[in-house]
Each structure stands twice: as structure tokens, then as C-alpha cells.
Design brief:
Nucleotidyltransferase, domain 5, ATPase_NBD, Peptidase M22, glycoprotease, protease, alpha/beta, 10 strands, peptidase activity, five-stranded mixed β-sheet
Length: 232
């Protein structure tokens, strides 16, 4: 299977082509960025597909991160994935950023629980906790940092995500300390691709996974809310 993976959910603009038969990415590129995903993504995808030496029609599916993440960044990646899928007549699937963060750690088959955390600002995080084998301990949700720290009850965890250091810095003194802290700005595009290959298009649609109402609003919504009726 050939999978084109796309990630613009957080502080990177990334794409890669996974060849599951070869067991590796055959091309990939990742640019660190907080803004500018819309301008950077399509040229980046074109370079990656060209480097892979394939045509878009040869892809078997397109995988894209669905969030939590930046409202604007998510829209960029999801729009690109849907557009490419439609043009190539191939399925698109969605992968959450929290699971993409956790996947490489779970893949190591260690016993420590894995807590994925993304900064939601205002002293809140998006987080989930899974056991070393990937089974759910705490379902994905947004919560105050103090609530996330209560996951220390599951034992010394592996913290991963762009809020991993935030949690580590405030980890309860009475709890076993984290076994590892990986403050990654964005998930590894290779794991976005592998998860995209594993999920079903029927159960993992390419739809935004916000966990709470987005702070940003499309320009059209803002215009409709702020427009004043014409004087009669």
C-alpha cells in the first residue's frame, strides 16, 4: 500500500509517502512552522510525491492529522487531503494528533503508560493516556493541567507531545517521575502514515477532531455575525 500522509495540525508542515510493502517512507519532508501552512503545503506535497517517483494516481490512500491542533492548520491539511483524494479517486482517512504522538512509544512494547499532551493554552491541555500496549486509560479530552497531572495514578509514564515538558515541570512530587519526556513540536509523519495505513476509511474519516469549540472562526461566519442590516 502507498499512503500519502499529511500533517499541518501543529507547529510543522509535513508530508510523506509510505510504502507498506517496503516497510518505510520512500519520501518525506517536514518544515517547522507556526504559521504559513497554507502557502507551504501544496508545494511541499508536490516535492514529496516527485521524490517518491510516483504519480498521485498510484496512491492507495491519503492520511491526514485531524487534531486537536490549530484551527487554521487543520483546515489546510484536511482540505488538501480531501482534494487530493477526490482528484485521485482514492480514500482519505483521519488520524488524531494525540494518537500519532503515542504510537511510536506504544510500538516499543514497554510497560509504562503513555500520556500524549498538546498545549490548549490558558493552563489547559488536550490529553489522553494509554497503557503500554495501547489500551485506553483516559479518553482524549481537554482539561486543566492539574486534571491531566492526576494521570500520575497510573504510574511513571512516558510523556510525549508539545505539552510534555509543561506536565513534567509540574509533575506531582509524591508520584513516580516520568520515565521519559519527549516535547515534540509535531508528530512524526512516519507514524501518521502507519496509522493511516492501519485504520479503516469507514471508521476514521478525515474530519476535524477539536475536543472543544475552536477559538477561530471562518471569515464568512464572522462577516455574517458582524454585518449590520441595511437602513430601510
Amino acid at each position: 500500500m502507498l499512503v500519502l500522509a499529511i500533517d499541518t495540525a501543529l507547529d510543522a508542515c509535513a508530508a510523506g509517502v509510505l510504502d507498506t510493502k517496503a516497510g518505510r517512507l520512500i519520501a518525506h519532508e517536514s518544515l517547522p512552522m507556526k504559521r504559513g501552512h497554507a502557502e507551504a503545503l501544496m508545494p511541499l506535497i508536490a516535492r514529496v510525491v516527485e521524490s517518491a517517483g510516483i504519480a498521485f494516481a498510484a496512491l492507495d490512500r491519503i492520511a491526514v492529522t485531524t487534531g486537536p491542533g490549530s484551527f487554521t492548520g487543520l483546515r489546510v491539511g484536511l482540505s488538501a487531503a480531501r482534494g487530493i483524494a477526490l482528484a485521485a479517486n482514492k480514500p482519505a482517512v483521519g488520524v488524531t494528533t494525540l494518537m500519532a504522538y503515542a504510537a511510536p512509544v506504544v510500538g516499543e512494547n514497554r510497560e509504562a503508560p503513555v500520556i500524549s499532551a498538546i498545549d490548549a493554552r490558558h493552563d489547559h491541555v488536550y490529553f489522553q493516556a494509554v497503557s503500554g500496549n495501547g489500551s485506553t486509560l483516559v479518553r482524549p479530552h481537554v482539561a486543566p493541567v492539574e486534571e491531566a497531572l492526576a494521570a500520575s495514578r497510573f504510574g511513571a509514564p512516558h510523556l510525549v507531545g508539545n505539552a510534555a515538558k509543561l506536565l513534567a515541570d509540574r509533575w506531582p512530587a509524591h508520584a513516580p517521575p516520568p520515565v521519559a519526556v519527549d516535547p515534540q513540536a509535531a508528530p512524526d509523519i512516519a507514524w501518521v502514515a502507519w496509522l493511516g495505513a492501519a485504520v479503516s476509511p469507514d471508521t476514521a474519516p478525515p474530519r476535524p477532531y477539536y475536543l472543544r469549540a475552536p477559538d477561530a472562526k471562518p471569515a464568512g461566519d464572522l462577516l455574517r455575525k458582524t454585518a449590520k442590516p441595511a437602513a430601510s
